[in-house]
Design a protein that fits this description.
This protein is α+β, with helices and mostly antiparallel strands. The protein has helices spanning about 15-20, 20-30, 50-60, 70-75, 80-90, 100-115, 115-135, 145-165, 175-185, 190-210, 215-220, 230-260, 265-270, 275-285, 320-325, 360-375, and strands spanning about 35-40, 45-50, 65, 145, 295-300, 300-305, 310, 315-320, 380, 405.
Length: about 400
C-alpha cells in the first residue's frame, strides 16, 4: 500500500533533476527505502535510492530482467510499448535482458573472452589507440575542445572495434546511433534501434561467411558445453557489446569532469600516479555513467522494511547513483575524494549482472587518464562547471559535451 512516505516529491524528472538529481535523491533516501514515481513515459515505477536495498535487489531472485518476454507487463510502458516490441526479438535477447539459467549460457563465452588475461593482451592496442587519439589533438589551437566528442568517443570506438573485429568503415556512425537510442529521443529512436539491429545482424552474417578475428567470431565458433548461441542471440550480443563498449566513453567523460571540477584532486593525481586506481573508482562512485538501472520487475512480493512492500508485477528503477552517495555507506558522500578506500560502489552493477566488460573499462580509463596527465598537464575546463549540461534521461547520467582547454 502506498503511503505518504513513498509518494514522489515535487521535482522528480524535471529539467533541474536531470541537471543534478542528488538533492531529490537525498530527500527520497531520507523518507523511505522505495518511492513510487511516474516515469517520463507515464510508467509506474518504484525508485530505489538507498545502497543496501539497491545492492540486495540487484541480486534478488524475486527481481527479474526479462520484461520483454512479458507482454502483459510491457503494456504498462504505454508510450514505449511499440518500440519495445520491435526491439524485443532482435536486440534484447542477450545476457543483460535475461535471467538464470539462460543468463549464464549467454554470458559465459563473453565473460571468458573479457577475463583479466585477455584484457592484458589487449593493453598494447588500447595504449596505441590512446596515443593516436591524443596525438590527433596536438595540432589544436588555444580554443576549447569537446573532450567527450574528440577524445572519449573516438578512443572507445577504436577499442570496441578492435575487440569485435570491425573494419574502420563500419565505425563512424556509432556515437550518433548510440546517443539517439540510449537517450530515447522520441520516435527517432525506433529507426535507430532498427538500424543497430540490422547492423548487428550484418556482423553475424559476415562472421559466418567470412570468419575473421574478433570476439564475435570466438563466440560463434567456440560455443561452450551449454546450448550454443543462436543467430539472433549472436546479433543481440553484438549489439550489447557495441553499446557497452561505447558506453565507456561516458564514464571517461564524467570522470574527467569530476577531476577537472576539483583542481586540487587533479593536481594530487598528477603528482602521485599511485592514486590513479582509487581516482578511477571515485570517479565512478561520484559521477558514474548511469543514474539508474531498469526497468526490472518483481516476480513476487518484496518487503523492504519500514512498512514498505512492493507487490509482484511492479517495475523497479534502481537508482545506483543515489545508492553511491548514500551516507549510510559512504561518509560525506557528496565529497569527491580520490583517496577513499571503500570502492564497493554500484556504478558497474552488482551480482550476476555486473558489467561483463568492467575490466576492459577500467583498463581504458587507466591508460587514457595516465597519458592525459603526461601529455596535457594544463588540461582544464573551458567554462565554469555549472554551465556544463547533462542529457535528460531517467537512467543515463551523461554530459551534453565537455569543453576543455588543452594548454
Amino acid at each position: 500500500m502506498t503511503t505518504d512516505r513513498t509518494a514522489a516529491p515535487p521535482g522528480i524528472f524535471t529539467p533541474a533533476f536531470f541537471q543534478d538529481a542528488h538533492p531529490v535523491f537525498d530527500t527520497l533516501r531520507s523518507r523511505a527505502p522505495a518511492t513510487l514515481v511516474t516515469g517520463v513515459s507515464g510508467t509506474r515505477l518504484w525508485l530505489i535510492p538507498r545502497y543496501e536495498e539497491a545492492r540486495r535487489l540487484l541480486t534478488s531472485p524475486a527481481v527479474r530482467r526479462d520484461d520483454w518476454k512479458r507482454p502483459d507487463l510491457r503494456e504498462q510502458h504505454l508510450a514505449r510499448s511499440e518500440r519495445r516490441r520491435e526491439m524485443s526479438t532482435r536486440i534484447r535477447a542477450n545476457m543483460i535482458n535475461t535471467d538464470p539459467p539462460e543468463h549464464q549460457r549467454l554470458r559465459q563465452g563473453t565473460q571468458q573472452a573479457l577475463n583479466r588475461s585477455r584484457i592484458e593482451t589487449l593493453r598494447p592496442s588500447i595504449d596505441l589507440f590512446a596515443d593516436e587519439t591524443l596525438g590527433a589533438l596536438a595540432a589544436e589551437g588555444a580554443g576549447p575542445v569537446d573532450f567527450r566528442a574528440r577524445v572519449a568517443y573516438p578512443f572507445t570506438v577504436a577499442v570496441v572495434s578492435e575487440l569485435l573485429g570491425l573494419r574502420e568503415d563500419e565505425q563512424p556512425g556509432f556515437p550518433a546511433w548510440f546517443d539517439t537510442l540510449m537517450c530515447r529521443r522520441g520516435t527517432e529512436s525506433v529507426g535507430q534501434s532498427s538500424l543497430l539491429a540490422d547492423f548487428s545482424a550484418r556482423l553475424d552474417q559476415r562472421r559466418r561467411v567470412h570468419p575473421a578475428r574478433g570476439l564475435l567470431s570466438t563466440l560463434g565458433s567456440k560455443p561452450d558445453k551449454r546450448r550454443p548461441l543462436s543467430r539472433t542471440e549472436l546479433a543481440s550480443t553484438a549489439f550489447l557489446l557495441l553499446i557497452a563498449g561505447i558506453e565507456t566513453a561516458n564514464a571517461i567523460a564524467n570522470g574527467m569532469f569530476a577531476l577537472l571540477s576539483h583542481p586540487e584532486q587533479y593536481a594530487a593525481l598528477r603528482a602521485d600516479r599511485s592514486l590513479l586506481t582509487g581516482a578511477i573508482e571515485e570517479c565512478l562512485r561520484h559521477d558514474g555513467p548511469f543514474r539508474a538501472v531498469g526497468p526490472r520487475y518483481t516476480a513476487e512480493r518484496v518487503d523492504l522494511g519500514e512498512g514498505v512492500s512492493i507487490p509482484a508485477g511492479e517495475f523497479l528503477l534502481i537508482a545506483v547513483s543515489a545508492a553511491n552517495r548514500d551516507p549510510r555507506r559512504f561518509p560525506d558522500p557528496h565529497r569527491f575524494d580520490i583517496t577513499r578506500t571503500d570502492h564497493q560502489h554500484l556504478a558497474m552493477g552488482h551480482g550476476a549482472h555486473r558489467c561483463v566488460g568492467a575490466l576492459l573499462a577500467y583498463a581504458e580509463m587507466e591508460i587514457l587518464f595516465d597519458k592525459l596527465l603526461d601529455r596535457f598537464p594544463r588540461l582544464r575546463l573551458a567554462v565554469p562547471g555549472p554551465e556544463i549540461r547533462r542529457r535528460p534521461s531517467m537512467t543515463m547520467n551523461w554530459l551534453q559535451d565537455l569543453p576543455v582547454l588543452l594548454r
